[in-house]
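Quick log. Single chain, no ligands specified.
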Amino acid sequence: MIPLETLLGQVSHAVQTAGGAVRQAECGQFLNWFETGEDGGLSPKAASFRLSGDQGAVNVPLVSLVNHNALGLTGVKLSMNVHAKDEDGRLLVGVDKPEEEAALSHKLELEFGKVSPAEGAARIVERQNQFL
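-> predicted structure:
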């Protein structure tokens, strides 16, 4: 058995780690729309579109043509059966089979939620679109 706060801390850490992995993958996908120049700077990959009439062609950054809605971890709901006991004023919980018959059995439900707008990516795209 472990203290309840230890269990909650470990679950919280796992949720934050998973959210970080999702954000890292999202950032990597966004950066695929750019090329690294010789100076190390990023330039948007572009395609040339021919317009009707005598207007010629327009170079359009590909990043401005794709949907940038992010796949994010907006919430996690965790439900588990735990048994608990009070030991010296501290609540201890376990998820395994109780060692003692006197251990109280409870259903513990945790819900984590966070929504972070990807404002940085939206601002880069908006700024790039101003150059069209």
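The radius of gyration is 25 Å.
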